[in-house]
């Protein structure tokens, strides 16, 4: 059984793009079963942190460990195999493929294949995750027929196919209506109750504060504050750098 504490540890993580320090000696940790929010202004380095943790980018320096094992230097598919899945800021489905086949694509990943799931088991799992996230019943329709909210659900469904222990969501609420937003907030709570640990980048702070146990705020790739949602949104450095005014998070 993995330790609950220090489940994911990011230690002095650094990424330079030429002369730009996108992430600079950033440290934080996430305990098993928790939801951690990662916030910061545009360009603060949040997506770069996700790309470093999930092996999409090599780090310049620092360490990342998951369940005590180092992730840096591993390929994205090896990291998925360890139980860590992600979604993307921009959802990019295969527009001509059906919803079913868009989810089925995840079956060709190594984690799924290594579990030896056959066609029938894969079909069962696809139907299960589609229902779990609340996708429309008609899974034969093409992804191009979906609105923005359902596309987000499709992206989450694909990530869930690999049965992750830790799920990284990159702005899951961006561009959604308030009804769609509520649906995904509820989904996040349910996934967490079912045992999934989550790391979530999100600009909609009011919603993030409803689900996050803790929040880390960054700017210019460096940590500004970390703590409970209330502590972080009221932290002077966060108020100044990210929120503009003390009251603005309420309308974010
Ligand atoms: N591949 C890259 N090459 C060069 N610079 C990059 C690259 N990826 C990101 N950057 C730069 O690194 C900085 C951090 O970008 P990043 O996308 O991580 O920010 P972010 O906090 O996710 O922003 P947003 O909230 O707008 O999505 C930005 O200045 C960005 O332009």
Automatic annotation (TrEMBL):
<dbReference type="Pfam" id="PF12399">
    <property type="entry name" value="BCA_ABC_TP_C"/>
</dbReference>
<dbReference type="GO" id="GO:0015192">
    <property type="term" value="F:L-phenylalanine transmembrane transporter activity"/>
</dbReference>
<dbReference type="InterPro" id="IPR032823">
    <property type="entry name" value="BCA_ABC_TP_C"/>
</dbReference>
<dbReference type="GO" id="GO:1903805">
    <property type="term" value="P:L-valine import across plasma membrane"/>
</dbReference>
<dbReference type="GO" id="GO:0005304">
    <property type="term" value="F:L-valine transmembrane transporter activity"/>
</dbReference>
<dbReference type="Pfam" id="PF00005">
    <property type="entry name" value="ABC_tran"/>
</dbReference>
<keyword id="KW-0547">Nucleotide-binding</keyword>
<dbReference type="InterPro" id="IPR027417">
    <property type="entry name" value="P-loop_NTPase"/>
</dbReference>
<dbReference type="InterPro" id="IPR051120">
    <property type="entry name" value="ABC_AA/LPS_Transport"/>
</dbReference>
<dbReference type="InterPro" id="IPR003593">
    <property type="entry name" value="AAA+_ATPase"/>
</dbReference>
<dbReference type="GO" id="GO:1903806">
    <property type="term" value="P:L-isoleucine import across plasma membrane"/>
</dbReference>
<keyword id="KW-0813">Transport</keyword>
<dbReference type="InterPro" id="IPR003439">
    <property type="entry name" value="ABC_transporter-like_ATP-bd"/>
</dbReference>
<protein>
    <submittedName>
        <fullName>ABC transporter ATP-binding protein</fullName>
    </submittedName>
</protein>
<dbReference type="GO" id="GO:0042941">
    <property type="term" value="P:D-alanine transmembrane transport"/>
</dbReference>
<feature type="domain" description="ABC transporter">
    <location>
        <begin position="8"/>
        <end position="245"/>
    </location>
</feature>
<dbReference type="GO" id="GO:0016887">
    <property type="term" value="F:ATP hydrolysis activity"/>
</dbReference>
<dbReference type="GO" id="GO:0005524">
    <property type="term" value="F:ATP binding"/>
</dbReference>
<dbReference type="GO" id="GO:0015188">
    <property type="term" value="F:L-isoleucine transmembrane transporter activity"/>
</dbReference>
<dbReference type="GO" id="GO:0005886">
    <property type="term" value="C:plasma membrane"/>
</dbReference>
<keyword id="KW-0067">ATP-binding</keyword>
<dbReference type="GO" id="GO:0015808">
    <property type="term" value="P:L-alanine transport"/>
</dbReference>
